[in-house]
Amino acid sequence: MKHTAAGLILSLLLVGQASSQSSKTVNTNMMKQGNEQYTFDLSDQVIRQKVSFRNRFGITLAGDLYLPKDHGSKQLAALAISGPFGAVKEQSSGLYANQMAARGFIALAFDPSYTGESGGEPRNVASPDINTEDFSAAVDYLGLQASVDRNRIGIIGICGWAGFALNATAIDKRVRAVATTSMYDMSRVMARGYFDKLAPEERTKMLEQLGEQRWKDAEKGELAIGTHSLPGKLTGDEPPFVQEYFDYYRTPRGFHPRSINSTSGWTATNALSFMNTPLLTYIKEISPRPVLLIAGENAHSRYFSEDAYKAAGEPKELVIIPNAVHVDLYDRLDVIPFEKLAAFFTEHLL
């Protein structure tokens, strides 16, 4: 397969030949298989509770609340955590919440709208507006808990949800600090391609294809699922970062039956609202609240964190993890700097 800039966008962002299976059917099947499967072990220092809450669009979100076992009656600082893009709370976000709860924080990992166990129809859809709101809804929930000090709430966004985390923090002044790992700016990559190399004529072609797909969806009365971003098996010809994604989502390491990236695909028209809705337009308005951006030295996505760092106001910090690739920051406990994250939020959630 030839991986041009347009080809990468068309395949990885799922603007391709649509499958005939409806998103609703896919979601139902995944739910039947999901059960209580997690891709990590729960810390013996942590309690996990199933919770739900509603966002301001009326969608009920499903989450896992992680609490330190010995938290007692004292109010604690809390964190809302989500990502990566196309993942579920039983994967990376839950792992992060588990680790942060073991370090003394109350942490909420949640499934974004239209995915996982959260509500919303149709399924397998993302939105720059609604997914930004999902973080604020998580802050709403945390701030109503008796065990949480609502003046000490922060956000962690992983991969594609890092962009939403920064956008939510810019607009939601209740968030006191934000950290991201392996950041993607989904609006930028969908609109302009990897490394901003999507030519104007390629962008026009994408938009024409999206428009044609809308006609097909309208005729069928349902949104088609786009071709999966990952192959069923590797040939060895894929770019390294595609192989890295495969090694997480398609193997026992990170597979989950409710994860879009493991089993299904986003809707074929999913990119539409991202194409002209830049997520980081107001990133400077996070200041004077602190921003921590963490990326792997060898990550294909590193430039997103570096550019966000340049655009953000003070205080800000960029941490580059030596030798790490993008997916190392999904689950590698020997790579993810949890002590750094704990120190950052301990300092700034005063």
Task: Tell me what the structure shows.
With 350 residues, this protein is α/β, with parallel strands linked by helices. The protein has a single domain, classed as Alpha/Beta hydrolase fold, catalytic domain (Rossmann fold). It is 36% helix and 17% strand. The chain contains twelve helices and eight strands. An eight-stranded mixed beta sheet has the order 1-2-4-3-5-6-7-8, sandwiched between helices. Strand 5, helix 5 and strand 6 form a beta-alpha-beta unit. Helix 4 packs across helix 5. The N and C termini lie far apart (52 Å). The N terminus is likely disordered.
Quaternary state of this entry equals single chain
Number of domains: 1
Beta-strand content estimate: 15-25%
Total helix count? 12
Mean pLDDT: 91
Question: Secondary structure elements and their pairing?
Answer:
Layout (H helix, E strand, L loop, with lengths): L4 H8 L10 H12 L11 E9 L5 E9 L7 E7 L9 H11 L3 E5 L17 H16 L4 E11 L1 H12 L5 E5 L4 H7 L7 H21 L19 H10 L10 H4 L27 E6 L5 H10 L4 E6 L6 H4 L6 H11 L2
Parallel strand pairs: 3-4, 3-5, 5-6, 6-7, 7-8
Antiparallel strand pairs: 1-2, 2-4
Helix pairs in contact: 4-5
Overview in brief:
The chain has helices at residues 5-12, 23-34, 92-102, 128-143, 160-171, 186-192, 200-220, 240-249, 260-263, 302-311, 328-331, 338-348, and strands at residues 46-54, 60-68, 76-82, 106-110, 148-158, 177-181, 291-296, 316-321. An eight-stranded mixed β-sheet has the order 1-2-4-3-5-6-7-8, with helices on both faces.
List keywords for this structure.
350 residues, Rossmann fold, 8-stranded mixed beta sheet, 12 helices, 8 strands, 17% strand, disordered N terminus
